[in-house]
Design brief:
This protein is an alpha/beta fold. The protein is built from 11 helices and 10 strands. Helix 4 packs across helix 6. The radius of gyration is 18 Å and the shape is globular. The protein starts with 5 loop residues before the first strand and ends in a 5-residue tail after the last strand. Bound molecules: D-glutamic acid. The site of D-glutamic acid has 17 residues, from helix 3.
């Protein structure tokens, strides 16, 4: 494995691009190889066994490329695997531990909310990760199954009434518990963070796991002396299991700018 190998990032679809965006900002000299399983999204409504099988196939695809680290940028995959790495021959992180650490550092009251897909909330993994760091923390979780569909279909404007209504339904019970920190435990939720922030109120700190995982990757590669050579300009390469055109059209909602890098459509078996 060489320092000039890429960082491999995968997600059930396009949501992991929130991690890519952060990685590009933090580590402009690193190449990124991204796999988005756009043909099989959503993972969040599937069983633990299916999510694990998909995640292993995603990792096997990335391992066919020259990579030096893997980030599972998907909240659902990270929750289902818990603290188990999916590879043992290179650095690996999901979004779970970086987000739990950031939430524990941010909270003053020890009351932390977690929102995610049904599979994420069912796993209880965010709660376990938080309590391992802060045993007295109170963790309040709620699944928000409609959010992924609303974001995928472009209902993301701050004044969008459908998304606000869904957000009020999902967030009111968490707000009522008086949390001061909320983990946006799914890749899609940072895209509607303004709506979530409006409902939760000013005093509540929002944690974006994809961004925290990117920061974790940066410190991990720095401390292992695995950063690319100085002066190298990093490039992104994207692989998706469904249409390239659909990816390019929707990716800008997650990146907040058009896709920069080559995009390939692929079969996982290839
Ligand atoms: N990427 C998933 C997550 O972060 C959301 C979409 C899905 O359900 O696959 O949980």
């Amino acid at each position: 494995m060489n320092n000039n190998y890429a960082i491999g990032v995968f997600d059930s679809g396009m949501g992991g691009l929130t991690s890519v965006k952060e990685l590009n900002e933090l580590l402009p000299g690193e190449d990124i190889i991204y796999f988005g399983d756009t043909a099989r999204i959503p993972y969040g409504s599937r069983s633990r066994e299916t999510v694990l099988r998909y995640a292993r196939e995603d990792v096997a695809f990335l391992l066919k490329h020259k990579i030096k680290m893997i980030i599972a940028a998907c909240g659902t995959v990270s929750s289902v695997i818990g603290s188990e790495p999916l590879v043992d021959n290179m650095p690996f992180t999901g979004v779970l531990l970086p987000a739990a650490q950031a939430a524990c550092a941010a909270t003053k009251t020890g009351k932390i909310g977690v929102i995610g897909t049904p599979a994420t909330i069912r796993s209880g993994s965010f709660g376990k990760a938080i309590k391992a760091i802060m045993p007295h923390a109170k963790v309040i979780g709620n699944a928000c199954p409609l959010f992924v569909h609303l974001v995928e279909n472009g209902y993301t404007a701050r004044d969008c009434q459908i998304t606000r209504l869904a957000a009020e339904e999902y967030l009111t019970p968490i707000k009522a518990e008086g949390v001061d920190t909320l983990i946006l435990g799914c890749t899609h939720y940072p895209v509607i963070k303004d709506i979530i922030a409006d409902i939760m109120g000013e005093g509540v700190k929002l944690i974006s796991p994809g961004a925290e995982a990117a920061k974790y990757a940066q410190s991990c590669l720095m401390s292992a002396d695995m950063l690319n050579e100085e002066g190298h300009v990093g490039k992104n390469t994207f692989y998706v299991s469904d249409s390239r055109e659909l990816f390019e059209e929707n990716a800008k909602h997650f990146l907040e700018h058009p896709v920069s890098g080559e995009v390939f459509s692929c079969n996982l078996g290839e």
